[in-house]
Amino acid sequence: MPELLAPAGNPEKLATALTYGADAIYLGGPGPNLRAPGAGFADWAAVAEAVATAHAAGSQAYLCLNALPTQTHLPAVEQALEHLADLAGTQRPDALIVADPGVLHLARRHLPQMPLHLSTQANTANAAAASFWAEQGATRVNLARELTLADTRAMAAACPGVELEAFVHGAMCMAVSGRCTMSAHLNRRSANLGLCTHPCRFQYRATATRPLAVRLEEAQRPGRDTWEVLEQDGFTSVLAAEDLCLARYLPWFARVGLTALKIEGRMKSGGYLAHTVDVYATALADFARGAWRPELYMAELLNTASRTLATGFFLPGGRQVAWAAPAQQRPVLGRINRQLGPEAWEVAVRARWNADAPIAIMVPGLQRPTIANNDYTLEDAQGARRTDAHSGTTLTLRCPHPALRQGLFLRAV
Questions:
Q1: Are 93 and 84 in contact (CB under 8 A)?
Q2: Residues 365 and 257 occupy one common structural domain
Q3: Is 235 a member of any domain?
Q4: Could you tell me the CATH number of the domain that includes residue 404?
Q5: CA gap 216, 291 in Å, rounded
Q6: Which has the closest alpha carbon to 31: 70, 72, 73?
Q7: CB neighbours of 215 closer than 8 A, spacing ≥ 6?
Q8: What is the extent of the structural domain holding 352?
Protein backbone atom coordinates (compact mmCIF):
# COMPACT_ATOMS: atom_id res chain seq x y z
CA MET A 1 0.00 0.00 0.00
CA PRO A 2 1.15 3.59 -0.56
CA GLU A 3 2.43 5.52 2.43
CA LEU A 4 -0.24 7.81 3.93
CA LEU A 5 1.38 11.19 4.58
CA ALA A 6 -0.48 13.58 6.89
CA PRO A 7 0.09 17.17 8.06
CA ALA A 8 1.28 17.95 11.58
CA GLY A 9 0.74 21.64 12.26
CA ASN A 10 1.50 21.51 15.99
CA PRO A 11 2.06 18.92 18.75
CA GLU A 12 -1.64 18.15 19.15
CA LYS A 13 -2.11 17.64 15.41
CA LEU A 14 1.01 15.49 15.32
CA ALA A 15 -0.53 13.26 17.99
CA THR A 16 -3.83 13.23 16.09
CA ALA A 17 -2.22 12.15 12.81
CA LEU A 18 -0.36 9.34 14.56
CA THR A 19 -3.42 8.24 16.56
CA TYR A 20 -5.62 7.97 13.49
CA GLY A 21 -3.18 6.03 11.33
CA ALA A 22 -0.71 8.18 9.40
CA ASP A 23 2.33 6.28 8.12
CA ALA A 24 4.30 9.53 7.92
CA ILE A 25 3.86 13.16 8.88
CA TYR A 26 5.21 16.44 7.52
CA LEU A 27 5.87 19.45 9.69
CA GLY A 28 7.35 22.92 9.64
CA GLY A 29 9.98 24.41 11.90
CA PRO A 30 11.82 27.72 12.29
CA GLY A 31 13.20 27.50 8.74
CA PRO A 32 11.40 29.11 5.75
CA ASN A 33 8.40 26.95 4.82
CA LEU A 34 5.00 27.52 3.29
CA ARG A 35 3.05 27.61 6.54
CA ALA A 36 5.41 29.82 8.49
CA PRO A 37 2.91 32.11 10.29
CA GLY A 38 0.82 29.64 12.26
CA ALA A 39 1.44 25.98 11.59
CA GLY A 40 4.69 24.57 12.81
CA PHE A 41 7.08 23.99 15.66
CA ALA A 42 8.59 27.14 17.11
CA ASP A 43 12.18 26.06 17.70
CA TRP A 44 14.59 23.25 16.86
CA ALA A 45 14.12 21.56 20.21
CA ALA A 46 10.39 21.28 19.41
CA VAL A 47 11.19 19.91 15.95
CA ALA A 48 13.53 17.31 17.43
CA GLU A 49 10.88 16.26 19.97
CA ALA A 50 8.21 16.01 17.26
CA VAL A 51 10.41 13.86 15.03
CA ALA A 52 11.30 11.59 17.95
CA THR A 53 7.59 11.26 18.79
CA ALA A 54 6.79 10.20 15.23
CA HIS A 55 9.64 7.69 15.22
CA ALA A 56 8.52 6.22 18.55
CA ALA A 57 5.09 5.62 16.98
CA GLY A 58 6.68 3.85 14.01
CA SER A 59 6.07 6.70 11.55
CA GLN A 60 8.36 8.73 9.31
CA ALA A 61 8.78 12.50 9.74
CA TYR A 62 9.55 14.94 6.92
CA LEU A 63 10.50 18.57 7.55
CA CYS A 64 9.28 21.30 5.21
CA LEU A 65 11.88 23.74 3.92
CA ASN A 66 9.75 24.42 0.87
CA ALA A 67 9.54 28.20 0.60
CA LEU A 68 10.70 29.89 -2.61
CA PRO A 69 13.22 32.28 -1.04
CA THR A 70 14.67 35.46 -2.45
CA GLN A 71 18.33 36.29 -1.91
CA THR A 72 17.62 37.93 1.45
CA HIS A 73 16.13 34.68 2.76
CA LEU A 74 19.11 32.45 1.97
CA PRO A 75 20.89 33.03 5.31
CA ALA A 76 17.79 31.70 7.10
CA VAL A 77 17.83 28.64 4.85
CA GLU A 78 21.50 27.94 5.61
CA GLN A 79 20.92 28.48 9.32
CA ALA A 80 18.08 25.94 9.26
CA LEU A 81 20.29 23.41 7.47
CA GLU A 82 23.04 23.92 10.03
CA HIS A 83 20.58 23.26 12.87
CA LEU A 84 19.40 20.10 11.14
CA ALA A 85 22.97 18.90 10.81
CA ASP A 86 23.23 19.04 14.59
CA LEU A 87 20.26 16.70 15.06
CA ALA A 88 21.07 13.02 15.29
CA GLY A 89 19.46 9.64 15.73
CA THR A 90 15.72 9.54 16.25
CA GLN A 91 15.53 13.36 16.38
CA ARG A 92 16.64 13.84 12.77
CA PRO A 93 13.91 14.07 10.09
CA ASP A 94 13.73 11.25 7.57
CA ALA A 95 13.67 13.71 4.66
CA LEU A 96 13.48 17.39 3.78
CA ILE A 97 10.67 18.71 1.59
CA VAL A 98 12.09 21.38 -0.74
CA ALA A 99 10.81 23.30 -3.75
CA ASP A 100 13.51 25.77 -4.79
CA PRO A 101 16.58 24.60 -6.76
CA GLY A 102 18.81 26.76 -4.60
CA VAL A 103 17.48 25.23 -1.39
CA LEU A 104 18.00 21.76 -2.85
CA HIS A 105 21.57 22.70 -3.79
CA LEU A 106 22.32 24.00 -0.29
CA ALA A 107 20.71 20.96 1.32
CA ARG A 108 22.92 18.63 -0.71
CA ARG A 109 25.97 20.58 0.46
CA HIS A 110 25.05 20.77 4.16
CA LEU A 111 23.28 17.42 4.52
CA PRO A 112 24.61 15.11 1.81
CA GLN A 113 23.00 11.99 3.32
CA MET A 114 19.55 13.53 3.91
CA PRO A 115 16.82 12.29 1.50
CA LEU A 116 15.17 15.18 -0.36
CA HIS A 117 11.50 15.24 -1.36
CA LEU A 118 10.44 17.71 -4.05
CA SER A 119 7.39 19.79 -3.14
CA THR A 120 4.30 20.36 -5.27
CA GLN A 121 5.53 23.98 -5.56
CA ALA A 122 8.06 22.76 -8.13
CA ASN A 123 5.11 21.85 -10.39
CA THR A 124 6.57 18.59 -11.71
CA ALA A 125 4.23 17.60 -14.51
CA ASN A 126 6.25 15.25 -16.73
CA ALA A 127 8.70 12.36 -16.52
CA ALA A 128 11.61 14.40 -17.90
CA ALA A 129 11.22 16.92 -15.08
CA ALA A 130 11.01 14.13 -12.49
CA SER A 131 14.18 12.55 -13.89
CA PHE A 132 15.93 15.92 -13.86
CA TRP A 133 15.13 16.43 -10.19
CA ALA A 134 16.25 12.89 -9.40
CA GLU A 135 19.60 13.63 -11.04
CA GLN A 136 19.90 16.72 -8.83
CA GLY A 137 19.42 14.60 -5.71
CA ALA A 138 15.66 14.42 -5.11
CA THR A 139 14.66 10.98 -3.88
CA ARG A 140 10.91 11.64 -4.10
CA VAL A 141 8.86 13.94 -6.33
CA ASN A 142 5.39 15.28 -5.54
CA LEU A 143 3.34 15.38 -8.73
CA ALA A 144 1.64 18.59 -9.86
CA ARG A 145 -2.01 18.68 -8.87
CA GLU A 146 -2.91 19.62 -12.45
CA LEU A 147 -2.13 16.10 -13.71
CA THR A 148 -4.85 13.78 -14.97
CA LEU A 149 -5.23 10.11 -14.19
CA ALA A 150 -3.57 9.25 -17.53
CA ASP A 151 -0.69 11.67 -16.90
CA THR A 152 -0.05 10.15 -13.48
CA ARG A 153 -0.08 6.60 -14.81
CA ALA A 154 2.31 7.52 -17.62
CA MET A 155 4.73 9.22 -15.22
CA ALA A 156 4.69 6.22 -12.88
CA ALA A 157 5.55 3.94 -15.80
CA ALA A 158 8.28 6.26 -17.10
CA CYS A 159 9.98 6.86 -13.72
CA PRO A 160 10.47 3.42 -12.13
CA GLY A 161 13.50 4.59 -10.13
CA VAL A 162 11.89 7.71 -8.64
CA GLU A 163 9.51 7.75 -5.71
CA LEU A 164 6.32 9.56 -6.76
CA GLU A 165 3.86 11.19 -4.38
CA ALA A 166 0.45 12.74 -5.04
CA PHE A 167 -1.98 14.89 -3.09
CA VAL A 168 -5.31 13.13 -2.62
CA HIS A 169 -7.15 15.49 -0.26
CA GLY A 170 -7.26 19.11 0.81
CA ALA A 171 -7.32 22.69 -0.39
CA MET A 172 -6.47 23.50 -3.99
CA CYS A 173 -5.19 26.81 -5.31
CA MET A 174 -6.31 28.79 -8.35
CA ALA A 175 -2.64 29.19 -9.27
CA VAL A 176 -0.46 26.48 -10.82
CA SER A 177 0.50 24.14 -7.95
CA GLY A 178 0.24 27.03 -5.54
CA ARG A 179 2.62 29.43 -7.34
CA CYS A 180 0.25 32.31 -6.74
CA THR A 181 0.92 36.03 -6.74
CA MET A 182 -2.59 37.28 -5.88
CA SER A 183 -1.81 37.58 -2.19
CA ALA A 184 1.42 39.47 -2.89
CA HIS A 185 -0.43 41.77 -5.31
CA LEU A 186 -3.30 42.57 -2.97
CA ASN A 187 -1.72 42.44 0.50
CA ARG A 188 2.05 42.43 -0.13
CA ARG A 189 2.28 38.95 1.47
CA SER A 190 3.80 36.33 -0.79
CA ALA A 191 2.21 32.87 -0.88
CA ASN A 192 5.58 31.55 -2.03
CA LEU A 193 7.09 32.57 1.29
CA GLY A 194 4.35 30.98 3.37
CA LEU A 195 2.44 34.24 3.89
CA CYS A 196 -0.70 33.67 1.78
CA THR A 197 -3.74 35.70 2.89
CA HIS A 198 -6.09 33.66 0.63
CA PRO A 199 -7.71 36.48 -1.37
CA CYS A 200 -9.31 33.73 -3.47
CA ARG A 201 -11.53 32.96 -0.45
CA PHE A 202 -12.53 36.51 0.50
CA GLN A 203 -16.14 37.60 0.15
CA TYR A 204 -16.97 39.97 -2.71
CA ARG A 205 -19.92 41.85 -4.17
CA ALA A 206 -20.64 43.60 -7.44
CA THR A 207 -20.09 47.36 -7.65
CA ALA A 208 -20.17 48.11 -11.40
CA THR A 209 -21.04 45.94 -14.35
CA ARG A 210 -20.62 45.69 -18.08
CA PRO A 211 -21.89 42.87 -20.34
CA LEU A 212 -20.81 39.47 -19.03
CA ALA A 213 -18.46 40.92 -16.40
CA VAL A 214 -18.58 42.55 -13.01
CA ARG A 215 -16.19 44.55 -10.88
CA LEU A 216 -15.83 43.30 -7.33
CA GLU A 217 -15.48 45.13 -4.05
CA GLU A 218 -13.89 43.08 -1.26
CA ALA A 219 -15.81 43.09 2.02
CA GLN A 220 -12.89 44.50 4.05
CA ARG A 221 -12.04 47.19 1.42
CA PRO A 222 -15.30 49.13 0.98
CA GLY A 223 -15.48 51.82 -1.65
CA ARG A 224 -12.85 50.41 -3.98
CA ASP A 225 -12.90 47.88 -6.82
CA THR A 226 -10.56 44.94 -6.24
CA TRP A 227 -11.15 42.53 -9.16
CA GLU A 228 -13.12 42.27 -12.36
CA VAL A 229 -14.63 38.84 -13.02
CA LEU A 230 -17.62 37.16 -14.62
CA GLU A 231 -20.86 38.55 -13.24
CA GLN A 232 -22.33 37.08 -10.05
CA ASP A 233 -25.24 38.14 -7.84
CA GLY A 234 -24.40 39.42 -4.39
CA PHE A 235 -21.28 38.30 -2.53
CA THR A 236 -19.34 35.42 -4.00
CA SER A 237 -16.14 33.51 -3.37
CA VAL A 238 -15.75 33.20 -7.12
CA LEU A 239 -11.96 32.83 -6.98
CA ALA A 240 -12.00 29.86 -4.57
CA ALA A 241 -11.31 26.40 -5.92
CA GLU A 242 -13.12 23.36 -4.54
CA ASP A 243 -11.22 21.12 -2.14
CA LEU A 244 -9.57 18.07 -3.65
CA CYS A 245 -10.95 14.64 -2.72
CA LEU A 246 -9.71 11.45 -4.36
CA ALA A 247 -10.73 8.98 -1.65
CA ARG A 248 -12.83 6.93 -4.07
CA TYR A 249 -9.79 6.36 -6.29
CA LEU A 250 -7.36 4.99 -3.71
CA PRO A 251 -7.44 1.49 -5.29
CA TRP A 252 -6.28 3.04 -8.55
CA PHE A 253 -3.33 4.76 -6.85
CA ALA A 254 -2.37 1.53 -5.10
CA ARG A 255 -2.39 -0.41 -8.38
CA VAL A 256 -0.39 2.24 -10.25
CA GLY A 257 2.29 2.02 -7.59
CA LEU A 258 2.77 5.53 -6.22
CA THR A 259 4.99 5.67 -3.16
CA ALA A 260 2.92 8.07 -1.07
CA LEU A 261 -0.48 9.75 -0.90
CA LYS A 262 -0.56 13.13 0.80
CA ILE A 263 -3.22 15.03 2.75
CA GLU A 264 -3.10 18.83 2.77
CA GLY A 265 -3.91 20.87 5.86
CA ARG A 266 -1.22 21.91 8.34
CA MET A 267 -3.45 24.85 9.28
CA LYS A 268 -6.71 22.88 9.43
CA SER A 269 -8.31 21.89 12.73
CA GLY A 270 -7.55 18.77 14.70
CA GLY A 271 -11.10 17.57 14.05
CA TYR A 272 -10.56 17.86 10.30
CA LEU A 273 -7.32 15.93 10.63
CA ALA A 274 -8.88 13.17 12.72
CA HIS A 275 -11.70 12.66 10.21
CA THR A 276 -9.47 12.80 7.15
CA VAL A 277 -6.59 10.64 8.32
CA ASP A 278 -9.02 8.10 9.75
CA VAL A 279 -10.85 7.86 6.41
CA TYR A 280 -7.77 7.47 4.24
CA ALA A 281 -5.95 5.10 6.60
CA THR A 282 -9.05 2.94 6.98
CA ALA A 283 -9.77 3.01 3.24
CA LEU A 284 -6.26 1.78 2.41
CA ALA A 285 -6.57 -0.98 5.00
CA ASP A 286 -10.02 -1.90 3.67
CA PHE A 287 -8.72 -2.15 0.13
CA ALA A 288 -5.85 -4.35 1.25
CA ARG A 289 -8.29 -6.80 2.87
CA GLY A 290 -10.92 -6.63 0.12
CA ALA A 291 -13.60 -4.67 2.01
CA TRP A 292 -14.03 -1.43 0.04
CA ARG A 293 -16.67 0.98 1.51
CA PRO A 294 -16.64 4.21 -0.59
CA GLU A 295 -20.00 5.56 0.59
CA LEU A 296 -18.85 5.44 4.21
CA TYR A 297 -15.62 7.28 3.36
CA MET A 298 -17.45 10.09 1.57
CA ALA A 299 -20.02 10.47 4.34
CA GLU A 300 -17.20 10.94 6.86
CA LEU A 301 -15.25 13.38 4.70
CA LEU A 302 -18.31 15.50 3.93
CA ASN A 303 -18.99 15.78 7.65
CA THR A 304 -15.92 17.97 8.03
CA ALA A 305 -15.93 19.70 4.61
CA SER A 306 -16.03 23.50 4.57
CA ARG A 307 -16.25 23.70 0.76
CA THR A 308 -17.37 21.45 -2.07
CA LEU A 309 -15.16 18.37 -2.46
CA ALA A 310 -14.18 17.58 -6.05
CA THR A 311 -11.84 15.52 -8.19
CA GLY A 312 -10.01 18.52 -9.66
CA PHE A 313 -8.07 17.70 -12.83
CA PHE A 314 -7.77 13.98 -12.06
CA LEU A 315 -10.47 12.40 -14.21
CA PRO A 316 -9.99 12.07 -18.01
CA GLY A 317 -11.73 14.23 -20.60
CA GLY A 318 -12.13 17.21 -18.32
CA ARG A 319 -14.76 15.34 -16.31
CA GLN A 320 -15.19 16.25 -12.65
CA VAL A 321 -17.13 14.64 -9.82
CA ALA A 322 -18.13 16.95 -6.97
CA TRP A 323 -19.78 16.50 -3.59
CA ALA A 324 -21.37 19.58 -1.99
CA ALA A 325 -20.73 20.13 1.70
CA PRO A 326 -23.97 19.38 3.59
CA ALA A 327 -25.89 22.16 5.28
CA GLN A 328 -25.98 20.19 8.54
CA GLN A 329 -22.87 18.47 9.89
CA ARG A 330 -22.08 16.59 13.09
CA PRO A 331 -19.55 18.93 14.72
CA VAL A 332 -16.52 17.79 16.64
CA LEU A 333 -17.38 18.59 20.25
CA GLY A 334 -14.07 18.00 21.96
CA ARG A 335 -10.77 16.18 22.28
CA ILE A 336 -9.73 13.97 25.20
CA ASN A 337 -6.52 15.50 26.53
CA ARG A 338 -5.75 13.00 29.29
CA GLN A 339 -7.21 10.57 31.78
CA LEU A 340 -7.93 11.96 35.26
CA GLY A 341 -9.18 8.78 36.89
CA PRO A 342 -10.78 5.38 36.20
CA GLU A 343 -13.83 6.95 34.52
CA ALA A 344 -12.78 10.62 34.30
CA TRP A 345 -11.26 12.43 31.34
CA GLU A 346 -10.05 15.97 30.70
CA VAL A 347 -11.74 17.23 27.55
CA ALA A 348 -10.92 20.34 25.51
CA VAL A 349 -14.25 21.59 24.17
CA ARG A 350 -14.18 22.57 20.46
CA ALA A 351 -17.84 23.47 19.76
CA ARG A 352 -21.03 24.17 21.65
CA TRP A 353 -21.87 20.96 23.48
CA ASN A 354 -25.35 20.09 24.73
CA ALA A 355 -24.77 17.44 27.39
CA ASP A 356 -28.43 16.38 27.15
CA ALA A 357 -27.68 14.84 23.74
CA PRO A 358 -25.79 11.63 22.87
CA ILE A 359 -22.21 11.79 21.56
CA ALA A 360 -20.02 9.56 19.41
CA ILE A 361 -16.41 8.56 20.04
CA MET A 362 -14.19 8.84 16.97
CA VAL A 363 -12.30 5.57 17.29
CA PRO A 364 -9.65 4.84 14.62
CA GLY A 365 -10.86 2.48 11.93
CA LEU A 366 -14.02 4.58 11.34
CA GLN A 367 -15.63 3.12 14.43
CA ARG A 368 -18.13 5.55 15.97
CA PRO A 369 -19.57 4.04 19.17
CA THR A 370 -22.34 6.14 20.69
CA ILE A 371 -22.65 7.23 24.31
CA ALA A 372 -26.22 7.95 25.42
CA ASN A 373 -26.84 11.26 27.15
CA ASN A 374 -27.62 9.51 30.44
CA ASP A 375 -24.33 7.58 30.35
CA TYR A 376 -22.02 10.59 30.74
CA THR A 377 -21.74 13.91 32.53
CA LEU A 378 -19.69 17.08 32.09
CA GLU A 379 -18.24 18.91 35.09
CA ASP A 380 -16.36 22.17 35.52
CA ALA A 381 -13.21 22.66 37.62
CA GLN A 382 -15.29 23.00 40.79
CA GLY A 383 -17.09 19.71 40.15
CA ALA A 384 -20.39 21.35 39.18
CA ARG A 385 -22.36 19.56 36.50
CA ARG A 386 -22.63 21.37 33.17
CA THR A 387 -25.42 20.79 30.67
CA ASP A 388 -24.03 23.26 28.14
CA ALA A 389 -20.38 23.80 27.21
CA HIS A 390 -18.68 26.23 24.85
CA SER A 391 -15.60 26.15 22.66
CA GLY A 392 -12.37 27.03 24.39
CA THR A 393 -13.28 25.58 27.77
CA THR A 394 -11.76 22.53 29.46
CA LEU A 395 -14.12 20.22 31.35
CA THR A 396 -14.16 16.81 32.99
CA LEU A 397 -16.03 14.06 31.18
CA ARG A 398 -17.24 11.29 33.46
CA CYS A 399 -18.09 8.14 31.55
CA PRO A 400 -17.33 4.40 31.86
CA HIS A 401 -17.22 3.64 28.11
CA PRO A 402 -14.27 1.29 27.34
CA ALA A 403 -13.44 2.98 24.01
CA LEU A 404 -12.48 6.29 25.60
CA ARG A 405 -8.77 7.08 25.61
CA GLN A 406 -6.35 9.99 25.40
CA GLY A 407 -6.15 11.72 22.02
CA LEU A 408 -9.55 10.67 20.66
CA PHE A 409 -12.13 13.16 19.45
CA LEU A 410 -15.82 13.26 20.36
CA ARG A 411 -18.52 14.50 18.02
CA ALA A 412 -22.26 15.04 17.87
CA VAL A 413 -24.50 12.18 16.74
A1: yes
A2: no
A3: no
A4: 2.40.30.10
A5: 49
A6: 73
A7: 206, 207, 208, 209, 225, 227, 228
A8: 332-412
